[in-house]
Amino acid sequence: MPEETFSETTRRLRPIPAEPPADPPPKPAPAGAPAGRPFVSLAPPDTYDDDTARLRPIGARVRPRVAAAAACVVLGFGLIGGAVAGSWLTGDSGGDAGARDSFTAAGDLWHSVPVDELFPPTVQGEGAGPGGADRTWTRIAVAPDSGCADAFDPLLRKALAPAGCLRLLRATYTDATRSHVTTVGLLFTKADSAAMGVLSSQFEDEGLDGRRDLMPRPYAAKGTVAAGFGDDQRASWTVSVLTDAPVVVYAVSGFADGRTVTEPQPAEDAMKTDATTPPAQAGLGHDAQGLADRIERGLRKTVNPATEKPS
Q1: Comparing 111 with 261, which gets the higher pLDDT?
Q2: What is the pTM of this model?
Q3: C-alpha distances out from residue 77 to 69, 89, 202, Å
Q4: Number of structural domains the chain divides into
Q5: Which of 97, 110, 259, 296 would give a disulfide with 167, using CB separation of 3.0 to 4.6 Å?
Q6: Rounded to an integer, what distance in angstroms lies between the CA atom of residue 278 and that of residue 234?
Q7: Which domain, by its residues, includes 171?
Q8: How far apart are CA 36 and CA 53, in angstroms?
Q9: Residue 78: what pLDDT?
Q10: Considering the domain boundaries, does residue 39 fall inside one?
Q11: Residue 68 lies in a domain
Q12: What average pLDDT does this structure show over 143-158?
């Protein structure tokens, strides 16, 4: 039978002798030791572990660990607090609120901002003409603010109906040669941000901004070069549904001499280098798009300071 082996978990004790052993005879003194002086031999040191060895005081070991843990906790709170403070300073936590404030403020501009800020008397179009040429447009008339009943063709009015019509502002400009006229409009809607997003997607997905039966109407002002600017004179146009403001920006351009245009063309197409239609060759697509873009930029520039909070 093989010898059983196991590991001990208790230390083996030294056997206790039954009787004290007799004193061993004295060892002879080593050679050269002084005579008459007793010789003492030291026992070899114990090499086993003593279970009763004195332990290190508990406090000496625990205190550094407690201190380290406390330091980690303090550091953790510091990092968290710093991150929160950082988000406050950068405005991350208030981004949605800021966007809502901006959207609401934009909807009030029609009655709170002077007309010269929305429709400046002169608009500079650096690089806005064909081939990157500069353009300058001069305002010749501002329509009274009104509703939308007579401003759009029936199909365009129907397409914009889901957003509602709060107020419509319009102005008509002419170029430096006074041979072109362009009406720019700002339709302030009753829609919220979600509804404007839906309407914008619809116009983009269905190509509504490029349909000839959805052209906006011009504003013909008597006594100006735009007096004969009617529906038949519409040559190029653009319609932009904003998603960060309850506003639809549009522009429609034509010839100042009142000629009829049989092939009106969306501004996006009329601005292409290979476009050969009369509106494209005359640069009327650039007039419509260039004015609409700059009036839209002015609108955004006007609303941003209105939403800034004092520090």
Answers
A1: 261
A2: 0.67
A3: 13, 18, 49
A4: 1
A5: 110
A6: 12
A7: 96-307
A8: 39
A9: 43
A10: no
A11: no
A12: 89
Q: What are phi and psi of 32, to 5 degrees?
A: 90, -5
Beta bridge partners of 184: 171, 251
> Residues 17-49, buried b or exposed e (16+ Cβ, 10 A)?
eeeeeeeeeeeeeeeeeeeeeeeeeeeeeeeee
Two tokens, residue 297 = 């930029």
Any idea which residue has 């997003």 for tokens? 197
pLDDT at 227 > cutoff 60: yes
What pLDDT is stored for residue 106 in this prediction?
Answer: 85
* Residue whose pair of structure tokens reads 């709060």 in the numeric block: 166
User: SS in 3 state form for the chain?
Assistant: CCCCCCCCCCCCCCCCCCCCCCCCCCCCCCCCCCCCCCCCCCCCCCCCCCCCCCCCCHHHHHHHHHHHHHHHHHHHHHHHHHHHHHHHHHCHHHHHHHHHHHHHHHHCHHHHCCHHHHCCCEEEECCCCHHHCCEEEEEEEECCCECCCCCECHHHHHHHHHHCCCEEEEEEEEECCCCEEEEEEEEECCCCHHHHHHHHHHHHHHCHHHCHHHCECCCCCCCCCCCCCCHHHCCEEEEEECCCCCEEEEEEEEECCCCCCCCCEEHHHHCCCCCCCHHHHHCHHHHHHHHHHHHHHHHHHHHHHHHCCCC
Contact 252, 288 (CB under 8 A): yes
Q: Note the pLDDT tens digit of each residue in 167-197.
A: 999 999 999 999 999 999 999 999 999 999 9
> How far is the C-alpha of 276 from the C-alpha of 224, rounded, in Å?
29
pLDDT one-digit tens code per residue, 69-108:
444 444 444 443 443 333 322 334 445 665 668 888 888 8
In a domain, 48, yes or no: no
